[in-house]
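Sample 3 of the quickstart, ligand iron/sulfur cluster:
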Amino acid sequence: MPLNPDFPWLRAWNGPLTADLVQRPGDFGLGRVPERLQPDATTSMVCGFCATGCGLTVHLREGEAVNLSADPRYPVNLGMACPKGWEALAPVSAPDRATAPLLRNRATGALEPVTWVRAMHEFVGRMKGVQERHGAESVAFLSTGQITTEEMTLLGALFRSGMGGRHCDSNTRQCMATAHVAYKQSIGFDAPPYTYADFEESDCLVFVGSNPCIAHPIMWQRVLRNPHKPAIIVLDPRRTETAMAATLHVPIAPKSDLALLYALANALLARGAVDRTYIDAHTDGFAEFERFVAEFTPERACADAGIPAETFASLVEAVANAKRASFWWTMGVNQGHESTRTAQALINLALMTGSFGRPGTGANSITGQCNAMGSRLFAHATGLPCGREFQNPAHRADVASVLGWPEERIPSTPGWAYDQIIDGIESGAIRGLWIIATNTAHSWIHQTRFRELAKKLEFLVVQDLYADTDTAKLADLILPAAGWGEKDGTLINSERRIGLVKRVRRPPGEALSDFAIFRLVANAWGCGDLFRAWRTPEEVFRLMQRLSAGRPCDFSGIEGYRHLDQSGGIQWPYTAADAAKAGPGPLPVEWRERRLFADGRFHTPTGKARFLFDAPRPPVEMPDADFPLVLLTGRGSSAQWHTNTRTGRSAVLRQMYPADCYVEVNPEDVARLGLLDGRPARLETRRGALEVNVVSTPTVPSGRVFVPMHYDGVNRLTAESFDPHSRQPSYKHCAARLVPRKS
Ligand code: SF4
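Result:
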């Protein structure tokens, strides 16, 4: 292939790369089906959609996956699966997968198939060109919580230590950054303390901004198995499916949750329903917290939240009487303008009631994506692997020693968060962007701004299963990636369980695993030598184990992939000392469900958890005369996943949700605004408009409307606003209006 004379360094890598591809295609996963699987058999692996992390049985014919069923032996789902799990082969079997690299022809503007060699030539040549013209930090990547942990580890190390880049983040920023920061600040490490058995052992479950019936249906099934007749309390502006099934729905005004949780703490104090012994032994800062919450009276809380006094009293009563209270939160908390303090308000409640480390207790964040937890530990976005800090010389030395790299290879400065990278495109600081397995042009808050800014980039690379996502359509280069079931690796679920995914299908055409693509980039970039010991996912897993050793997430005791396979996944921590106690081979039953902090020792310097709090603030955009409604967004159905790039490719799943975007509106508002149930309307905010069908339903209170996030254009409406600690976008609150439209 002729070399671009603009990039003379290409001579240094073009030859070896070609030789690699020609001589050792197997190393890059070029269409090989794993040899260890019998032609007609079953195997098991974890689902690649949500962070529940269900085990699925894969049915094979002639060595290829042909069907799936729920694995009855897996300790997470106990033989259950939601529609996405049953249909998980459909998105990878879709006929419209990306099968070859596509390069935009600069003359015609069309995307045209090219070889991997040419794709790497362009990738390296143009990214290095951007760096030469604008500095090493002018290229960035945006990644995902959907690829394997081994892939995340390789990508972060490649980009920061091999390519000289600094700014990188992942879509975990959009879902779990808040939980990460909240735990780290409060208990010293991003360590969700629970195990799913806690759903069954709690006598009072408080769900805040969480609708597990729809968003985490298998977790909800675990709640339904609870034999203790628990109080189930839901704090949510909408009467969601979970709220309908709860023993108490607290229908709070949008974004009044933080003040209400402070008021709950105050009311528990007034009743003496706190565990002073636990507080004194295991926490810091309680006296200040006690003084702070004193002004959050029940009267004020009820007025701000718009709830009756009796409802608040019932909430206090249920928590005060609980012996095993657990506090659960999801995106209704994480995606708020003061989300970190709201998550910490729940942590504070668990601490003050001594609800940590015992069965059925905990302040428990429910994770979104299948591997958001892997991203939080290994993505290099907010820190070095396993919660280490870039700025800490001892941490850098640790990482360098495990990887066998000189210390100067280990990055010493944090990079920008997702929103800062987008701002960087606007300012011209970011000129080259590599987007991996995420759909920024749909999912980013105020998507129109991103779509406009993407035009400013000198080079946009999108690595995905499909070439027709909203983001891929903007790309200069598309790298076709293998999907779930087409590659090996591990995912970490909400309860810290490391589960295995396997290659049980041949990727279509020339699609490669993300792992293989990162290795190609490393070789092409000229830093392949750094990754000589990173040849396979399992080799990287071994490195990850060594990186985890001595950290709170230590899983160095795991014997390898086979051990995970035999044991129904293994929760971290699982240290070498644990392994010595548990013995070799499949994990004994008593080791399969483990929670943290039974000894009350946390990962802060004092060993005590911290009470953290701040005065509540109003959202950035309140309803007014022009835009009198509050727009809420969230998951629509259990058959839909995020931007529908995968679930939209299943004919079965498509039958389970409306094809067109809809808005849920209270019947009073339907009548008052002259709307008609089932008829079109125009939903407008200050940023844009969306055609929607009206669904008249009392589940949404008057003055608020709800739109599922999965439909294209929803984030045309949302307002850019971020939590100051986690920099997570606030998708759950902006001002809107509805205008009837003649169909
Ligand atoms: Fe997959 Fe989540 Fe459904 Fe389980 S609940 S089958 S992990 S999508």
